Amino acid sequence: MDDTSCEDFSPNRLIREFLCERVLVFKELAALRDEGWANPSGDDYFKQQRKRADEAGLKEQRWFFHMMQQIGDEMENATGFLSQLVCEKDPPKVLDLCIAPGGFSAIIRQRLPTAEIGGISLPHSKGGHKLLFGHSDPRIRILFTDITMHSSEMGATSIPPNHPEAAAFIQSRPYLSEAFDLAICDGQVLRNHPRQSY
């Protein structure tokens, strides 16, 4: 039984059990969720969704890029987070981790034309998204690297020599010496990013 059931034994079992006993709506939603997960047509639907995401053509990539721009605009309109970065002396500095396809940074450049942007993106050759915004401006510096392999950023200063990927770990800490006014971190491990099974 999967972890959506009220009777499962996952780490969240006690909370689900508590809610199922006391909140009728939660119990009904948990039952509907179980029903959905048990439906083979749901598997087919998500398989198609994954295929579309993994094999996205330029049209789908642009749609995703524009969706991220729209989200950035909505966040700015709701909170004014970019307006608050306007400095009288220095241009705002932004760090965009997992920058591709670049929708958030495109909005930053649109709203804050003098902003300096540092970014990190998984190379396209390793399964990363393509960058879809003009990044030839010298105020935009993008490092194409696998952020998950920068071990020293995670506090690991020595890698055991017998580790399966010992040679692949990177000890450098990009952008360590810089200060940023805003950091964006919206990445996730992609299915088409080759990963070791360990």
From TrEMBL:
Residues 93-188 form the Ribosomal RNA methyltransferase FtsJ domain. GO terms for molecular function: methyltransferase activity. One of its GO terms (biological process) is methylation. This is Ribosomal RNA methyltransferase FtsJ domain-containing protein. It holds the Pfam family FtsJ. It comes from the Eukaryota. It comes from Aplosporella prunicola CBS 121167. Gene3D superfamilies: Vaccinia Virus protein VP39.
